[in-house]
Amino acid sequence: MSIFSWIEDEKNLKLLNAPKSGHRPGDLSLWIRCENCGVILYIKHLQQNKRVCFGCNYHLQMNSIERIERFIDAGTWRPINETLSSCDPLKFKDQKKYSERLKESQEQTGLQDAIQTGTGFIEGIPIAVGIMDFTFMGGSMGSVVGEKITRLIEYATAQGLTLIIFCASGGARMQEGILSLMQMAKISAALNAHQNTAKLLYIPILTSPTTGGVTASFAMLGDLIFAEPRALIGFAGRRVIEQTLQEQLPKDFQTAEYLLHHGLIDLIVSRFFIKQAIAETIILYQQAPTKELGLLAFKERHRLTISQEEQLRRLVENSSNLNFSGLMKSFFHLVTGKKEEKTGLLKLKPLPFSKAFKKVPKVNKYKRVKFLIPKTPKSDIIDV
C-alpha cells in the first residue's frame, strides 16, 4: 500500500466516524460532517451560519430551539401547551418499550414531544407558529403532536393570527398505531375552518426531511407552500416507488427543486431570507384589496362545558314556566353569568317548545332532555 492510499483511507475513516448533522442540545461535539459534501464543519461557526454548509450551501437539520432563536423576534416567543406528553396506549414494545424511548428522547432533547407550538412576532407581525423537531424520534407525528397542532390552529383561528408550521418529520408514529393516523384528519379539519371559514393565512415551511403522513396532510394544505433548498420531501420512500413502478427515478426526485418544477410547492427560500419572505408575504396578504372577510358563527365561540350542559338539563327539567324567552334568559345567565343580554341572543325568533326541546325516553329512572340550539341568523355572524 502506497503512502497516498494510506492517507486516503485515513481520511475516509475520519469522515465515516465524524458525527452527522443531527446535533442535539447538550451534545459536546465540536465538529459535524456535512451530509452532502462530507466537509468537516466547526459546530460554533456552523450555528452562526444558521446551519448552512460553507462549502456547498447545503441546509443541515436544525432543531426547534435554534429555529425559534433564528426565526422569532427576540423576547416575543410564548409557548402553548408545552407540558403535553405522550403516553403508551398500545403498550408497544419492539427492542425497547415505547415508554422508554419517549423518556430517552425527552432527556436528550429537553422537549416533551416532537413539536413546539406558540405565538411570537416576526418583523413585528404577530403569528402562531409550530416548529417540528426531527431530533425527537425522527419528528414522528403521534397523538400529542397532532393535538398540539390542532390546538394551535384553533387558537390562531380564534385570535385571527397567521399560521406558520415548520415541517420536519418521518411521518406518523408507528408506536401509536391508528391513533397517530387519526391526527391527519383532525389537523386537516381544523385547517379547513382556519382557511376556508375564517379566511386566514396558513404557510407551511417544508424542511428536510418532510415525509409520510405529514406530507399527506397539513404539509401540503397551505395557501402558500415554502421549502428550503434541496429539502427531501415525499410520501413513500424512493426504493419503494422504484420497486412498485419498476422504473428508475430521476436523481433529484423528491427534492424541493423537483417539486417546484412540477408545481407542488410555491417557493424555495434560503434559510437566510425565510424570515423576511414570510413577513413580506403576510403584509401583502393583509393589504390585498380584494381579500374576502372570514365568517365565524357566534355559537362556535361559546361552547357549553359538561357542567353547564348538566345545569341546563336540570333547569329545563325543573322549570315550571316553559316560556322560550324566559328560558333563554336563564340560559344566557347560566353561560355568561350576566343578568342582562347584550349580544343579540334574545333577538332570535322563538321556537315552539316542541321543536326546541325533544324528550327522550326514560333511562334508569332519569329523565333526559336534548336541547336543540336554533340556527344562528346572518345578523349574529361576526367578522374575524
From TrEMBL:
User: Which of this chain's residues are annotated to bind Zn(2+)?
Assistant: 34, 37, 53, 56
What is the protein's given name?
Acetyl-coenzyme A carboxylase carboxyl transferase subunit beta, chloroplastic
Quote the cellular component terms of the Gene Ontology held in the record.
Answer: acetyl-CoA carboxylase complex; chloroplast stroma
Its EC top class is transferase
Cofactors demanded by this protein: Zn(2+)
Q: Which gene encodes it?
A: accD
Species source reads Auxenochlorella protothecoides (Green microalga)
* EC nos: 2.1.3.15
Q: HAMAP family recorded for this chain?
A: AcetylCoA_CT_beta
Question: What GO molecular function terms would the record report?
Answer: acetyl-CoA carboxylase activity; ATP binding; carboxyl- or carbamoyltransferase activity; zinc ion binding
What keywords are assigned to this protein? Answer: ATP-binding, Chloroplast, Fatty acid biosynthesis, Fatty acid metabolism, Lipid biosynthesis, Lipid metabolism, Metal-binding, Nucleotide-binding, Plastid, Transferase, Zinc, Zinc-finger
Catalysis: reaction(s): N(6)-carboxybiotinyl-L-lysyl-[protein] + acetyl-CoA = N(6)-biotinyl-L-lysyl-[protein] + malonyl-CoA
> Where would you say this protein principally sits, based on its record?
plastid
Q: How is the cofactor bound?
A: Binds 1 zinc ion per subunit.
What the record says about family reads: Belongs to the AccD/PCCB family.
**InterPro entries in UniProt:** AcCoA_carboxyl_beta, Acetyl_CoA_COase_Trfase_b_su, ClpP/crotonase-like_dom_sf, COA_CT_N
Quaternary structure note: Acetyl-CoA carboxylase is a heterohexamer composed of biotin carboxyl carrier protein, biotin carboxylase and 2 subunits each of ACCase subunit alpha and ACCase plastid-coded subunit beta (accD).
